[in-house]
Amino acid sequence: MGLDIRWPIGLMFTLIGVLLVGYGAVQGASATVQVAGSSLNVDLCWGLVLLVFGAAMLLGASLGGKQPPSA
Amino acid sequence: MQPIALHLIDYTILIAYVGFVLGIGWALSRYMKSSSDFLTSARSIPTWVTGLAFISANLGALELVGMAASGAKYGIATAHFYWVGAIPAMIFLAVFMMPFYYGSKARSVPEYLKMRFDERVRALNSLAFAVMTIFASGISINALAKLLTNLLPWQLNLSLGFLHLGSYDCYLWICSGVVLLYVLKGGLTSAIYTEVLQFFMIVLGFAPVVYLGMKDVGGWHAMNQTLQGVAMNPSSDYLQAPGIHYSPDAWSSAWRPLLQGSAHNPMGVDLFAMVFGLGFVLSFGYWCTNFLVVQRAMAAKNMTAARNTPLVAALPKMLFPFLVIVPGMIAAALMAMPEKNYRIPPPIVSAARYDAAVADVRKADPAQIPDACKAISADLGLNVDQARIGLLIQANAQARLADDDIRKGLYDGIAVNDYDSVILSLVRKYCPPGLLGLALTALLASFMSGMAGNVTAFNTVFTYDLYQAYMAKNKSDHHYFWVSKIATVGGILLSIAAAYFASMFYNAMDIIQLVFGFVNAPLFATFLLGMFWRRTTGTGAFYGLFGGIGASALFHAMTTVRDNLGPNHEALNKMKGGYLGVHAVFPSEMAQNFWLATFAFLVCLTLTLVISLATERTKSDEELKGLVYSLTPREVDPNQPVWQRPAVMGLALLAGCVILNWIFW
Fold this sequence. Notes:
The complex is a heterodimer of chains A (71) and B (665).
Chain A: H1 6-26, E1 32-35, E2 38-41, H2 42-63
Antiparallel strand pairs in A: 1-2
Chain B: H1 8-29, H2 35-40, H3 47-56, H4 61-74, H5 80-103, H6 109-116, H7 119-151, E1 158-160, E2 163-165, H8 167-216, H9 219-232, H10 256-259, H11 271-289, H12 291-298, H13 303-319, H14 321-324, H15 326-335, H16 351-363, H17 369-380, H18 386-398, H19 403-413, H20 422-430, H21 435-471, H22 477-502, H23 508-532, H24 538-558, E3 559-561, E4 584-586, H25 589-614, H26 646-663
Parallel strand pairs in B: 3-4
Antiparallel strand pairs in B: 1-2
Helix pairs in contact in B: 1-8, 1-21, 3-8, 3-12, 3-13, 4-15, 5-11, 5-13, 5-26, 6-7, 7-8, 7-21, 7-22, 7-23, 8-15, 8-21, 8-22, 9-15, 11-23, 11-25, 13-26, 16-17, 16-19, 18-19, 21-22, 23-24, 23-25, 24-25
């Protein structure tokens, strides 16, 4: 099929990553959870992870042709 | 359940996902030109995509909600669904069975059965399969509509003349509509692509929830220590009736409680039922013969890619218990830690019932706790924990409590868990706005794709194996292309009907297992004999299969489970079997299902063997070439390095599986 699935995956997670990082940075307190005595701005942290994942997918798609080395 | 307060960011993520899914359908629609593009993706999709779709296709309501529920109910032993069940079956499919599916050029599993046996076997299998996909699809979309009804703050009310639609109905129809749109636009490719999107959504959406939960219970070791206390007294978590006790490792060890026999583990199964019933019969029956998953591999671009599809899928699948089962174990551990202020939610009880119970708590006499508990239990319609309700009554007698405090006390004192809401309760507990949107989108994605996967399998089987085979032969491809689109709409409508049906039952997981037991368990015997014994005849296969399905139904009609037994040894709830009298009682529905599958498999195997020997062969060795193992030349791709051959990769995966079993022994 003519559509490389890595484009939509990459775009979507980059978008969600940006949203989460932005929300985490602006909303500091309400994006933070307290677990086991320590507090963690999970939106910011996880947003960064999603951003990296999305960017990697976009990079893979733009380099084109070759599939990820899963098989 | 209180609605979750969703913020703008959560809605944005949810809508972005739906937008991307619809966008994929639209982008693919221009490639949909023939029935083969629409129904089989014209066999053109790369391996890593079919591999991820292969596991995602079954990652619907069953897996996410059901596995977390079982993780809480049964502990790490639930991982047997993966490490004993799915993985070995997927390897078997890749190494031994895929060459026949892909090599025979069959477009569906029923079509293979027609080539190997005859029309009767195909008709029986395609009809049973069609019914099953509709139910699975209905259960997924029912779970989604229920989830949204309980979650979103809006009370929808739509009146169309004589028709009144509440929130549940509206969400059911809207979500089904979205699925219909993208499947209708992009066909199987659309379903496969969104399944891959969904795979990443689920992994990336739930990983932080598992991480935060694990951190909260103090890590793996601390969780297992808490679960040891739970195992010794499971009634404290309302996991079992009072008076049942297990050895300390019943929740945290996968094999030891099993080896001690069915009375010593919460699943109520022994080694044979687990290894043969689940591991061999149910799992091989599901993963090797279910067209829903096999269809993903058959869409691969060549034989090597098709055989590698289940192997690529097996690697992440092996690690899935950490994502889907561990949350249930975390929930069971949290519940045993009073300072965490958590319980697995009880079934939803209406506000009016709570109000009646609050009134009864107020007028209760602290000296007459048992009578008061009976009244409160009747108010709520559920069993209550006498000790906890007693404390509540005493506290209220000493100093009048506020209504909300009493409600909270009642909520904690309901001695019944609604296991299906484990996963959602953890999402609520740990996710701030943003992450909440991501996790809810992952749930939504899994439910929608559970529907899409089943509908795409249904429309193929309907078009090729029912319509083309029996209703209208030799029409143009254009004709079948349109029929497949109509079948898609019909499949969605039937799923909605099935969803209404499913909304009447509370444990979706056990019902699905039951259906799989009826249909899939005997089927694997047919394939095993058909693929590996050339003497198997069509008549033998047909009556064997028929007998197997009948045997399942009969077995279910004559047995039931322990907690379904009335005072006169009768079955209380007929859905749990026993409608022709109770002749055997199992400790749990899981055990009943495993034994049912084993029985159906053996009946089908024996009948097929005996009838085949008694009937004439109708297909010559020449006709069975490419369909039966001993008559098909082995294909070895000379360009493929040794380590990439399916058998070698399969062995490596199997070794990984053994190691996991050993670690969690």
